[in-house]
Amino acid sequence: MKPIGSRFPLISILYSGWFCFILLTTSVFPDNFFEEEFKFISYGKLPGWKGIATDWQSRPAIHIYNRRVFKGHADFINKGLGTKIRFEEFKELSRKSKVRKYLPFYIYDLRESNLVIKNEKINYALRLQDYQYDDKPIFMTKEIIKLIHLIQAEEPNFQKPLIILNHQKNNSLSVSQIGEYLKLAGYPYLTITTLLEKVGGNQLEVLNSGVAVGKLVYLEKEEDLSSVSEGDIPILNFLPLQLPPVAGIITLKPQTILSHVNLLAKNRGTFNMYVLNLDILPGAKSLIGKYVYIDDRDNEVSISEVSEKFVAAYRLKNPPRKITVERYHSQYSMVIPLKKSFRNLMKVSTIGAKASNYFRLLENFPDLVRPGFALNFKPYQEVISRPEIESEIQMLIQQSKLITLAERRKRLSKIRELIHTSSVSQITIHSIRSILNKYYKGRKIRLRSSTNCEDIPGFNGAGLYVSRGFKENQDDRILQTQILEVYASFWSDYAFEEREYYGISHTNTGMAILIHESFRKELANGVALTIPSQGQTPEILVNSQSGKESIANPTGQFIPESFYVNTRTLIPGKILSKSTKEPVFLGHIEYLELLKTLSKSIVKIHSIFLKDVPESERNLYGVDIEFKIMKSEDGPVFRIKQARLLKYD
């Protein structure tokens, strides 16, 4: 009978390898090998650690290091171990089998995942950092098993870990290269994509990437936002409709990538994420009330404590950018038709950005955009110029940086109250009534905020101001009340604080109004975002939801469908999520033709709006577009509601 090794060469090789390296192993581990404080969350759902094996061919040792301190494997070797080697040298000493000194890896903690493969509970997964290793498949397998036993020598519970491979055929870490060898040796393996599918949906998702530095605070309900300052990182147990400037955003409810909160985060450059359970983000619970540093580099999210002095220095080095806005022109009391014959008045400084953008859409897509009108800034200026209102505004502006947040909000409340009890000129009221009688008989209109400090390049101001509805058969007192509601929203707490944060002049800015027919008989609504790409055609991301469920201000009850448009076929490509309520484009064949028309229109809107941006900066901008799918006698049709530039930096 032949020895086992002669029948199974792999087992023979591995057996001799195990014996040799066990004799050479030296202990360099802390009492707890997998330090909880070193843990981070990866791929939105996998808690894990970073590690590296050193002195691989002499006296191998394993290090699990703190990725909050060291930027990566090479940085740990360079700074943590003091080798001072360059990255390229480190990579060669990892990649080449003959001179291998280092073997970098990741370990994923699957103890809470309930993952079972072939009736065995899987507690850990091991993935090598892919440096295009030159090992032959059988020897690459040997290296992986050697690493496993090194770890087991210090952590006995690290039994039969799941090995993470990839699909690239000629890669040394691919299923096709070493899958069979691992199977023969008795080790389960999966690709990272399959693992992510098996452990379920995202428990955590970063919607706006970056860094957050500030005080971590927990807020239970929306009223608690009144206590938040711009130096705080709030953990929100709700989805806010509005949010003041903050140092970072964490919600405990799923957000949509195109919600007002995330668009504000993108515009501000604020880190924004959701996590379904705070236990998922290692260390977060224990750091509430403390100063922290959060980042998500390399698709990994971690949080660590820092000093108040560190936070102050960081904020001093990274102040919010200042925004200059052209002063508005107050000239016209009567409504202005959004028509080509009034083109000289279709300016942000005359009718506000929302109305100006709406005119551009109407001009280019008359079949997809409803006719509209605008109110100039003059009626607003007449209201706030009244002595009792003007004096309150001037006093607030002069003292805003000297008084407490509570006092500031008390004064803002008084300004709003004075505006609510004011009146709009009869010329303006009669002017609106005349277009109601002529164009909107028996219908409802929408009075939409249109300031000169929202929907502009570099500052979208999403969700800061209100819009109000009005039915043609209601009396003029209600019309006046609704107009004043829109005007008063200019002095809301959130709007004022946003302007303060960016140094926007409160006296150079004001409120105009966009007027168009309200949307009724909605089958669905959605938001589309264009993302600059290397080619001529931008990427298109679509979020859509059936009925009247809001995309811009989600309640958290329903998750919308979200997908990228295939720019070649103009139908859904990569799907990010399916609706938990009812499908729209992902479930109705008749909507696919609408999507093609919508996608072509979106590409054209992207081109039109980016003409305002210097060519050197166009790769920083996309366009945020809101649309509706409406019921009609001829079947579903779509209408464009609004569009605005969105800066990505």
Descriptive overview:
By secondary structure, the chain is of the alpha+beta class. The protein folds into four domains: 195 residues, no CATH class; 114 residues, Glucose Oxidase, domain 1 (3-Layer(bba) Sandwich), CATH 3.50.30.10; 182 residues, Dna Ligase, domain 1 (2-Layer Sandwich), CATH 3.30.1490; 126 residues, D-amino Acid Aminotransferase, Chain A, domain 1. Helix content is 31%, strand content 24%. The chain is built from 18 helices and 27 strands. The strands form four sheets. Strands 1, 2, 3, 4, 7, 8, 9, 10, 11, 12, 13, 14, 15 and 16 form a 14-stranded mixed β-sheet that branches. Strands 25-24-23-22-26-27 form a six-stranded antiparallel β-sheet, sandwiched between helices. Strand 2 and strand 3 form a beta hairpin. Helix 5 packs across helix 6 and helix 14 packs antiparallel against helix 16. The longest helix is centred in the C-terminal third of the chain and has 20 residues. The protein is elongated, with a radius of gyration of 30 Å. The relative contact order is 0.08. The N terminus is likely disordered.
The share of residues in helices is: 25-40%
- How would a textbook summarize the main sheet? 14 strands, mixed
Percentage of residues in DSSP E strands: 15-25%
Low-confidence stretches: 1-30
Assign the structural class, choosing from mainly alpha, mainly beta, alpha/beta, alpha+beta, or little secondary structure.
alpha+beta
Q: Give the count of structural domains.
A: 4
Rounded to the nearest angstrom, the distance between the terminal CA atoms is: 70 Å
Per DSSP, the total helix count is: 18
- Mean pLDDT metric: 88
| Total strand segments | 27
Q: What value does the Rg take, in angstroms?
A: 30 Å
Task: Write down the overall geometry.
Answer: elongated
